[in-house]
Amino acid sequence: MDKLSGKIALITGAAVGLGEGIAQVYAKYGAKLCLFDLDPHVEVTAQKLRDHYHQDIISFIGDVSNRQDLEEAVTLTLEKFGSLDIACCNAGICRLTPFDQMSDQIRDQHIDVNIKGVWNSCQAFLKPMLKQGYGSIVIASSVTGDLVADAGEVAYAMTKSALVGLTKALAVEYAHKNIRINCTQLGYAQTPMVEKWLLNLILLIQKNLSKILLQQSQ
């Protein structure tokens, strides 16, 4: 179980859900980690992984929409471990809302976290990787937007599909620098965000169904 032995990885959105799962696998295979999240629970996750896998793991509470937070997390990682070999841009949000009712605030939240957050992350992660001459960045996109879509997910679909284009452009730009940049397009997984999304989807379907039945009865 030492495929990642000696590797240093930084994961955003690592407190719960997919990010926690990614951190668990990285720790299982021997990586030293910096777990980054806006949720203070990230330290609980870090301690749990330290206790279970006996790996060197640090945490950082920060916001991916704030580039300075990411740069400070990278600095902390370099001071603690000496390099940054792998970075996973996992942080993201999904606020299920009908398009005609979606506020600018909800739209901008998706853009700030799902697009600008990944943009900021990649810029912060690339600096040490360019200096050391190697690295790997994994961007968490989704099947939503690029391949499929569901009602109420316009902002999420728009921002996640944008990450596919971002990944392709970055991969071409930095391949000759020995830095690999890829994205994953995952489907649904049982995480707190998806559970909340499913509940909201059920409520939305019930609301629309009630309207249809009312119209048919008139």
Automatic annotation (TrEMBL):
Keywords: Oxidoreductase. It holds the Pfam family adh_short. The keyword Transferase does not apply. It comes from the Bacteria. InterPro entries: NAD(P)-bd_dom_sf (IPR036291), Sc_DH/Rdtase_CS (IPR020904), SDR_fam (IPR002347). One of its GO terms (molecular function) is oxidoreductase activity, acting on the CH-OH group of donors, NAD or NADP as acceptor. SUPFAM superfamilies: NAD(P)-binding Rossmann-fold domains. Belongs to the short-chain dehydrogenases/reductases (SDR) family. This is Short-chain dehydrogenase/reductase SDR. It comes from Streptococcus gordonii. The lineage of its organism: Bacteria, Bacillati, Bacillota, Bacilli, Lactobacillales.
